[in-house]
Amino acid sequence: MARTERGFVTIVSGVPRSGTSLLMQVLDAGGIAALSDGARPPDASNPRGYFEHALVRRLGSDPRAAELIRAARGRAVKVIHALLGSLPEDVPLRVLVAERPLPDVVASQAAMLDRKTRNDTERGQTPDGVIAPERLAQVYAMQLEDALAQLAARHNCAVVRVETAQLVRSPASACARIAAFLGGGLDEAAMARAISPALFGRSRGYVAAMDAAARELLGPLALEVDHRTAGASGGPTLRAKRTSDGAELFRFDCFVEGAHWHADPDGRDEITPIPLELDAIDFALAELRRDLAGYAARAGLREPLPAPGERESALARIELALRNPPPAFDALTEPVLRARSGEKWQQYGPEALPLWVADMDFEVAAPIRRRLARALTVGDLGYPLHPRPTRIPDLAAARMRERFGYAFSRSQVELVSEVVQAMHVALVQLTQPGDGVITQTPIYPPFLHVIREHGRTLLANEMRRGPDGYALDQGDLRAKAKQAKLLLLCNPQNPTGRSFRRDELEALAAIAREHALTVISDEIHADLVFAPNKHIPFASLSEDAAARTITLYAASKAFNIAGLRCAVAIFGSAELKRRFNEFPRHLRGGLNGPGILATEAAWTHGDAWLADALAYLRANRDFVADFVKRELPGIVHHAPEATYLAWLDCRALKLAEAPHEFFLKHAKVALSEGPNFGPPGEGFVRLNFATSRAILARALEQMAKALRG
User: What is the spatial distance between Cα 56 and Cα 48, in angstroms, rounded to a whole number?
Assistant: First the structure.
């Protein structure tokens, strides 16, 4: 393999017991030599070594440590998390931060300290004081957050977080992501082999420690969750173990098919099936909330458990882990993606990397997969309930209230097949042919189609672009409102990625009130807003804004289930709902039963997955912004505040052909055509970064290579 010159220092960091030694071993295997003085030799728990340099521990107090870092371009250096802020600022750095759930880190640290305490006692030495686990977790979290904040403010530093459990479970995809971050040219196969379970054994080391997705200690009882039994018919396992010796007392195998629970009194394995009509996770949690102490006693545990409040808190955390296995965003493989039948991967053939239509490549959240698998298992594919009895209106109302501060009743909600369908119905029912309809351009193409297809007059309110991104042109909007009946609003905005501020929306609301405009607000991207930005529903601004607004919302975009066709229309007034529903219901088509089930699962148990997805998308967003700045000169880009879409201005490239045609032909990357978003899209392309980092990096590298010629 050709040697790749790296003009930066690779830094590996993380809190203790998070997997930093494993990362160093992986990099060493891949071809990035570790800076190590051998001061900490291999031992029984880490036979391949720690790859540390003693002088690095004096960063911030000894100038020689900083000089050592400066001289380490092309090599990897392990730095403890508390010293990240002391790294030199005059050398390029790429930082890999090992991440492992803090409860697991603290449990591992506690076990190590417990062994040390016993050894010290046996030698007649006075053991060191031990910090309480809860306090230790708080300290680590604060230290790491502070260190990462300092790095984020630096110009010489790029950071990627590496989930150690994911690295162990999906070595190939995780190593591909690491290699892409570090500029390529690494032996990814050797890196993956360095994580082989055979190198660690099953009784100790990283693999054994990482198998449990969550662990909660309740005095003499430990509850553990693992997700080893994958697949449509599988599911998580919840184990209850004796803390003192790790012996399993009972467990629930919460499979979609063949679910059962085991009790192991005195070593006897007693198996009881869980009835098919019950969801096994629901059953296990209900039973433990009802009588955890009883289950433990029947399995032979004699010691008392903590108070009920502490038990409930632990079970709440266990429930989160049971329903949400660690997401495998990096575990996407191109052959599997190309086997999908959707338009994203089929439209442009087998050679192109598709980063166009707004579908995420990620595997659907586990609670949704489980609910759909269960529907197949019990044959739940008949006619869905009439809209009124479903849980969707209640869930939509609760979600909008809790996440965005918009309060309304379930009676104001109507189920529809999709947001675009509701847009068509609303336009037909609330306007007449020839009426003026305002929308901000550039805009998601169906906004333009719905206006033209129904013979309405498009009044394009072009957004103004400044040095920091796009803004609403309120003066132009006010002028065009005199000729309009309706405003089609996209909030957050696609394709610019704007998450509109309250003052911007209030200005829109004032113009709508002044000119008696009805507002159709497409808020399908509401759940995909990056902090510190916040989504503000237009109808939440005031009673007047609500009364003139139909809000369109769905789980389809945030949870990647667009093909299941389920959305809601939220009416700010009874009159708007009456007029909407005068459109014959059967012309709208029937409702999708699996879509209803998937939406219920997403809005009930999917937010942990969504939080992980947002974190991954944010990292991809930042990766795109950094790559465009460094490697795609001539392309102008403002990092989006929301959505997983990058709006790229290619006009300065002065290409001989349209940008989307150029990149498809010369880079084999399929992007959305800018002109489809209206005249302001001429010379632009839209890039979808909701894919694995490895695929994203490859596509961007191909684009850069095409521009270099």
Answer: 20
Q: How open is the CA angle 681-687-689, to the nearest 5 degrees?
A: 155
- Does the pLDDT of residue 123 top 90, yes or no? no
Q: Would the pTM count as exceeding 0.85?
A: no
Q: What is the rounded radius of gyration, in angstroms, for the C-alpha atoms of the chain?
A: 28
Q: What is the pLDDT of residues 187-205, one digit of tens each?
A: 887 888 777 543 333 323 3
Which residues partner with 242 through β-bridges? 221
- In the block, residue with structure tokens 């159709």: 520
Q: Could you tell me the end-to-end alpha-carbon distance of the chain, in angstroms, rounded to an integer?
A: 24
Cα–Cα distance, 9 to 118 (Å, whole number): 40
Helix axes 133-152, 102-122, angle to 10 degrees: 130
CA 136 to chain centre: 27
Residue with tokens 């309060």: 407
Which H, E and C letters describe 509-543, residue by residue?
A: HHHHHHCCCEEEEECCCCCCECCCCCCCCHHHCCH
Matching residue, tokens 């192109």:
352
Tens digit of each residue's pLDDT (9 = 90 or more) over 496-512: 999 999 999 999 999 99
Give the Cα separation of 299 and 287 in Å (integer): 14
Please state which of the ranges 36-40, 652-656, 683-687 shows the lowest mean pLDDT. Answer: 36-40
SS3 591: coil
Nearest by Cα to 409 from 577, 293, 645: 577
Which candidate, 168, 213, 160, 224, places its Cα nearest to that of 326? 213
Is residue 362 within 8 A of residue 690, CB to CB? The reply is: yes
- As a whole number of angstroms, the distance between CA 592 and CA 192 comes to 42
Phi-psi domain of 589 (left: phi exceeds 0; alpha: psi -120 through 50; beta: other):
left
Non-local (6+) Cβ contacts of 29 within 8 A are: 187, 190, 191, 193, 194
Answer for the pair 446, 420: CB distance below 8 angstroms, yes or no. yes
Q: Which of 657, 607, 647 is nearest to 625 (CA)?
A: 647
**In the 3-class helix/strand/coil scheme, how is 115-126 assigned residue by residue?**
HHHHHHHHCCCC
Residues 6+ apart with CB under 8 A from 675: 658, 681, 682
